[in-house]
Amino acid sequence: MNLIIVKIGGNAISKLNSDFFEQLRQWRQAGKKVLLIHGGGPQISKLSAKLNIPTVKKNGIRVTDEETLSLTKMVLLGNTQPALLMRLAHEGLAAIGLNASDQQLLTGTYVDQAKYGAVGSITGVNELALSKILSGQIGVLAPLALTRDGEWLNVNADTAAADVARVLKASQLYLLTDVPGVLKNGKVISAMIPQDLPQLIEDKVITDGMQPKLSAAVEAVHAGVHAVCITDQLTHPGTTLKMEVTD
Ligand SMILES: Nc1ncnc2c1ncn2[C@@H]1O[C@H](COP(=O)(O)OP(=O)(O)O)[C@@H](O)[C@H]1O
Ligand SMILES: CC(=O)N[C@@H](CCC(=O)OP(=O)(O)O)C(=O)O
């Protein structure tokens, strides 16, 4: 599929500028399919705090009990997704909000139910339905999946984006975040290959949320995604991960 996937972290949603929407417009005019996968982690944590529901994270993954799952669905589908759709509409871009329950778009399985609760990874994508939807408009997809038995799963948005990119063999995956790229000594590492990752983790250059983000990125390039870009803006090169250094 001639597809570009952009994951937008919860922190990045409110910081999208006109260059972002212009880039989307150009991709659409060039006939590319565009899928946006949104996060909402900070917004989920904020509402949890307001409701006195403790946020528990293990390895950057939100431990998701029943109460947290319903709050997560509420925030992603009732807050962050419509916020993004309204911005797209304001910019004159045709877009549609999507989640796992639309035409069984995303199927998933539990990662480790005893450890994380209702947290999943994506095992299946309804490729035909998604392809049809994306030929006419930009898709805005929430990082949630449904098990075969119809149970909802909370999926880390970086993992969701990389999984979907892997299954659909997207040509490019952008992970938009709140930093200009992978930083080392304060400078952006412009090009990376998968083999660079273990040493950077061992040297504690890459920590926190950047670690699962890069692991997801590595899986995507291994599965045939041409390039994964980690950046704070689509028009900034940031860090590009490829299977091999090309320039
Ligand atoms: N080497 C690194 N370069 C850049 N950011 C890093 C690095 N190591 C850890 N980080 C952290 O990773 C964060 C981005 O990951 P995360 O907070 O999960 O983003 P998002 O919510 O956009 O998915 C940065 O804000 C930074 O605090
Ligand atoms: C399982 C898990 O951790 N899910 C994430 C889903 C949202 C997300 O990943 O949002 P950001 O990209 O803004 O961090 C969460 O509950 O925070």
TrEMBL record:
InterPro entries: AceGlu_kinase-like_sf, AcgluKinase_fam, ArgB, Asp/Glu/Uridylate_kinase. It is found in: Cytoplasm. GO terms for molecular function: acetylglutamate kinase activity; ATP binding. One of its GO terms (biological process) is L-arginine biosynthetic process via ornithine. Keywords: Amino-acid biosynthesis, Arginine biosynthesis, ATP-binding, Cytoplasm, Kinase, Nucleotide-binding, Transferase. Catalyzes the ATP-dependent phosphorylation of N-acetyl-L-glutamate. GO terms for cellular component: cytoplasm. The lineage of its organism: Bacteria, Bacillati, Bacillota, Bacilli, Lactobacillales. Residues 2-232 form the Aspartate/glutamate/uridylate kinase domain. It holds the Pfam family AA_kinase. Its EC number is 2.7.2.8. This is Acetylglutamate kinase. The record marks K7, K213 as: Transition state stabilizer. Belongs to the acetylglutamate kinase family. ArgB subfamily. It catalyses: N-acetyl-L-glutamate + ATP = N-acetyl-L-glutamyl 5-phosphate + ADP. Pathway: Amino-acid biosynthesis; L-arginine biosynthesis; N(2)-acetyl-L-ornithine from L-glutamate: step 2/4. The keyword Nuclease does not apply. Substrate binds at G40, G41, R62, N154.
